Amino acid sequence: MSLVPALDSADLVSWSIAASLIGGLVVMLLVRKSQASRVLALLFSLVPLAATTYMLVAVLKSPGAGYQFQHKYDWINLAAFPGFPGGLHINYIVGIDGISAPLSFLTAVLVTISIIFAWDESRNPGLFHGLLLLMDASVLGVFGTLDLFVFYVFWEFTLVPMFFLIAIWGGARRKYAAIKFFLYTFAGSLIMLLGFMALYFVSGTGSFAFSDILGAALQNKFSQSFQIWVFLALFIGFAVKFPVVPVHTWLPDAHVEAPTSGSVILAGVLLKMGSYGLLRIAFPMAPQGATYLTPLMFVIGAISVLYAAIICLSQSDYKRMVAYSSVGSMGLVLLGLASMTPIGVVGALFMMVAHGLSSPLMFMMCGVLQHNLGTREIPLMGGLASRMPVSASFIMVGSMAGLGLPGLALFPAEFQIFTGIWERFGVLVFIPIFYLMLSAAYWLWAMQRSLFGPLTEKIDLHHLYDVHKFEAIALAVTVVGLVVFGFWPRFITDPAVPSVGFILQVMGVH
Amino acid sequence: MVSLGSLASLSNFTVPAPWIALSPLFVLVAGAIVVALAGAGPRPRKGALATFTVLVLLLAGILAAATVVAVPGFGWVLSATNGLATGAHPPEPYGLLEVTSFTVLFEIVFIGVAVLIAFAGPGMYTERQQGEFYALLLLATSGMLVVAEARELITLFLGLEITSFSTYPLAAFNKKSEHSAEAAMKYFIIGSLSSALTLFGISLLYGQQGDTTFQGLANYAALLASPGHGVTPLAVFTWAFLLAGFAFKVAAVPFHMWAPDVYDGAPSPVSAFLVAGSKNTGFVALFKIFLVGLFAIKGNWDYAVAIIAIVTMTVGNVLAISQDNLKRMLAYSSIAQAGYILIALPVATPYAVAGGLFHILTQALMKAGAFIALAALAAVGVEETMDGIKGLGKRAPVIAISITILMLSFAGVPPLAGFASKFFLFSSAVFQSQNGTPWLVWLAIAGILNSALSLYYYARVIRMMYFEETPGYVTAPAPRLKIPALPATAVVITALLTIALGILAAPAMNWALAAAQTLGP
Predict the structure, then answer these.
(1) Local structure of A79: helix, strand or coil
(2) How far is it between the farthest Cα atoms of chain A?
(3) Buried b (16+ CB within 10 A) or exposed e, B170-207
(4) Residue A242, class by beta-carbon neighbours within 10 Å (0-12 exposed, 13-18 middle, 19+ buried)?
């Protein structure tokens, strides 16, 4: 079913990437004035937003396991010769299905709202907005491509703009955090690249395309031990990005030091790249490795959710608490994926989108608090609801979403994930389920200490502005998203079910 | 775009005279003589000699490139007995020089590096002794061409010596600096030692087989590898001496100690020439000797080279981390890169060799750019240290962005050239490990882990330029630097080529594949 026939045959994925890439470079290199740079950046960011919205609607209207908007171009072709059978063929292939459509849409939304939220950025605004657009281009590339090599290129390129965003506009320890972020994720990705190379050469197809490697996997060209090693290599790369315990330590530093817009992108979409890669690449291409290592994934996931929740309870810095809560949410995503049941995996995907709305909301509120109060220390706050009613409302929505209140998007996600865990692991579900109690505790406790009770006298409250208009627009978008997806989860689940079903079928688990 | 390598199939192509194939060499030597004479005469006009040198180099480069189109993939032979040979194919057994696509690839690398340095020259040096400088530059380049064209060991050795004896005085060019003199002295002593080892290896070889051509060497190795024979201890001695001699040249561990001192002490443009140009003559020699000559007894030397490769990349990267002096950091980084390139030898498939060649190409480009950038900064009084470049992002934005691109490319961040060449190189080891030699995968793993390690010090440079303030200008903004235009242009060109070679890697890689196939295995 087509909406506008001309658009259906257009390469919307590449158009989105190209628009944000060109926009990023133009804003970065050519624009000096802050007004011009933010307006121009906003206009450029609307192109991928429109394109991804169109694709999401198209996928919703005609759900199916296959890719839509698929396009293919030659990139690197090395001829075959004796000793080098098959040659080397790297194609730039893009396409969208029920798994990547919501994530691409989320990316475009978050970049747009982070440009709006940083409307008053005065320090080198051209570079700032340009880097945000470059982020947009590279993350859309990660979700849109169907070729391992191109995937890797986009995957690594996300690091560069984020590195600069943290290091130039970050907090006090920004230099340390930026370098740590860059090194950690670069190291993990390189191990992943080794796995890609192994998949490519053993498949013997001479192509990095997902479909070709998947074909080789279906023809049983990969032995079980090979699949275990490859899965491990890929898992290391993806786990760093997730992040899950014990490779999560870059995240609190990066988040706490990053500027608010950086945190929004980081938590909203960058973390989702790991879980997306696991589902899209590691699961179907090394299925026996995935099933063999399921216990490992369960243990890591369970430790992540509980560890993160306990750490959150003891945090006094609001932003640090939100950052650690991401580790918990992403641990849940890992558990949902590890369940390898349709409901668990779809729940994990749902969680990726829901968390991609709730954590940006909370990060933006941490930014607002920091601006208003000059601090993010929870013990110094108190009674803010009376002086900052709008901010308090947003914080309440974010916290309620975080603890899984029905009606907001995280509830259906958590429900599906725990159902999936129950189906697969049985009574073991009682281990991670403690997370629900702990998460409710830290969200409520932090909210109660900061917003309610007697008005604090420990900080100067004379410069409160509550929330700027442009900030409110950005915040409201995430709230609308949380509510819409909370009440109508089928926007995400309906298109995702066939695609997830296909992956699970390829893996031979369902 | 027509890839040059795809023309390799035109093996029956005839060319009127082999002069064209050897003309770059003649052009360079003639140019060197003219420049030397002009420099000795009355003081030439400012920049005239540099312009002339660039033109000579460009002419040589165009002639070299023309050769590859005209005579793709097979050799023209300069015979020792009857002067310039006819274009007989296969080549005559006793020829001295040949021009293949392998040769031309290196000719272009060498000439390209020299062009960059000569082009960036005005604005970086004082006007004194221009004649000597450019004459030596041209002579050294001609020696490199001889190395690339050599078909036998004595010619190869002569080429190496022409290069060395031209670069020794270049290293000491900053006469008033003790540092520079010390560097030149070290370079001379180590260079002589390396030559002695090489020559001893060659003489041992001649004693065993009575022939100095690579083809003769290959026949001898095939004999050793044939049933009923075995690799004699003397043969092991021989390749060990040759390996040691050239390991000095490419600064592979444990023969690397001289490199940081020399690259640090020599004037930056000369360091650029040494790292990006003359060092690669060692790789040419290693490729020719080990992949053409000694390929048949690969099982005998591959572990040794593999261990040297892994140790070299690791030591280079670990020592680079703690460097505050940027020239020393780049020196250690180039040691590490030599380790990556050595991966091509034990893997020894055309794909691996092509990856190695491509990596040599990208490294030459990037190292030349980085050293020229440092030279350009030094010319406006910026110290070549981590402290010196603090706040450079605001003081010299164009140079800073170029250096950033180069550093990210060194570390192997896609889609830059350094990533592409590393990808081909490492993946060749993974490929061969799946084809019956499983241990080769450790070369790829070592390379990957080292790349992760190396990012630390490359990112540190970026950090200093963008995230730190210029010392002494914490409150007020530091003044913009007026970087001389020519070196700045050269640096920007290398940065742009780094991006282009990363995205359009296929033509270069196809050419490298054609070149690798001419080597044999």
Answers:
(1) coil
(2) 80
(3) bbbbbeeeeebbbbbbbbbebbeebbebbbbbbebbbe
(4) buried
Q: Over 60: is that where the pLDDT of B2 sits? A: no
Q: How far is CA A242 from the centre of its chain?
A: 8
Q: Which residue has the higher pLDDT, B282 or A88?
A: B282
Q: What band does B74 get if pLDDT is binned at 50, 70 and 90? A: very low
Q: How many angstroms away from the CA of A447 is the closest CA of chain B?
A: 35
Compute and round to an integer the Cα radius of gyration of chain B: 22
Q: What is the ipTM of this complex?
A: 0.87
Cβ neighbours around A39 below 10 Å, total: 16
Burial class (CB in 10 A: 0-12, 13-18, 19+), B340: buried
Give the Cβ contact number of residue B126 at 10 Å: 7
Does B237 contact A at CB distance below 8 Å?
no
**Number of Cβ atoms within 10 Å of the Cβ of A349:** 30
Query: Which whole-number Å values give the CA distances from A1 to A8, A32, A63, B85, B170, in the listed order?
Result: 10, 45, 10, 71, 72
| CA distance, residue A375 to nearest chain B CA (Å) | 23
A358/A395 Cα distance (integer angstroms): 10
Nearest-by-CA chain B residue for A178: B463
What does the alpha-carbon distance between residue B120 and residue B484 come to, in Å, rounded to a whole number? 9
A94 strand-pairing partners: A71, A145
Mutate to test the interface with B, among A28, A151, A174, A182 (most CBs of B within 10 A): A182
| R_g over Cα of chain A | 22
Chain B interface, best mutation among A32, A77, A127, A153, by max B CB count within 10 A: A153
- CB-nearest partner of B448 from A178, A183, A190: A190
Q: Tell which residue, B56, B206, B202, B192, has the closest CA to residue B135.
A: B56
Query: How many other CB atoms sit within 10 Å of the CB of residue B90?
Result: 9
**Predicted local distance difference test score (pLDDT) of residue A165:** 92
Cα–Cα dist A497/A505, whole Å: 12
Which two three-digit tokens encode residue A214? 């998947």
Helices (H), B251-349: 258-265, 268-273, 279-286, 298-321, 326-342, 344-347
Q: Of the candidates A77, A168, A194, which has its C-beta nearest B444's C-beta?
A: A194
Checking if the pLDDT of B91 tops 70, the result is no
Model's pTM, two decimal places? 0.90
Task: Check if B455 contacts A (Cβ < 8 Å).
Answer: yes
DSSP 8-state assignment for residue A403 = T
Q: Is B350 on the interface with A (CB under 8 A)?
A: yes
Predicted confidence at residue A284, as pLDDT, reads 93
The per-residue b/e assignment along B316-327, b for 16 or more CB within 10 angstroms, e otherwise, is: bbebbeebebbb
Q: Hey, is the C-beta of B70 within 8 angstroms of any chain A C-beta?
A: no
Q: B435-471 as b/e, with b when 16 or more CB fall inside 10 Å? A: eeeeebbebbbbbbbbbbbbbbbbbbbbbbbbbbebe
CA distance B221 to B217: 6
HEC string of B346-413 equals HHCCHHHHHHHHHHHHHHHHHHHHHHHHHHHHHHCCCCCECCCCCCHHHHCHHHHHHHHHHHHHHHCC
From CA B364, how far away is CA A391, in angstroms rounded?
Answer: 56
For residue A246, whether the previous peptide bond is cis, meaning omega lies within 30 degrees of 0, is: yes
Using 50, 70 and 90 to split pLDDT, how confident is the model at B123? low
- Rounded to the nearest angstrom, the minimum Cα separation between B350 and chain A is 7
User: Nearest CA of chain A to the CA of B506: how many Å?
Assistant: 5
* pLDDT tens profile A216-247: 988 988 999 999 999 999 999 999 998 998 88
Q: Tokens 């030692």, residue?
A: B193
CB contact under 8 A, A78 and B419: no
Give the model's confidence band at B143: pLDDT under 50 very low, under 70 low, under 90 confident, else very high. very high
> How many angstroms separate the CA atoms of A209 and A221, rounded?
16
Determine the Cα–Cα distance for residues B153 and A494; give it in Å rounded to an integer.
71
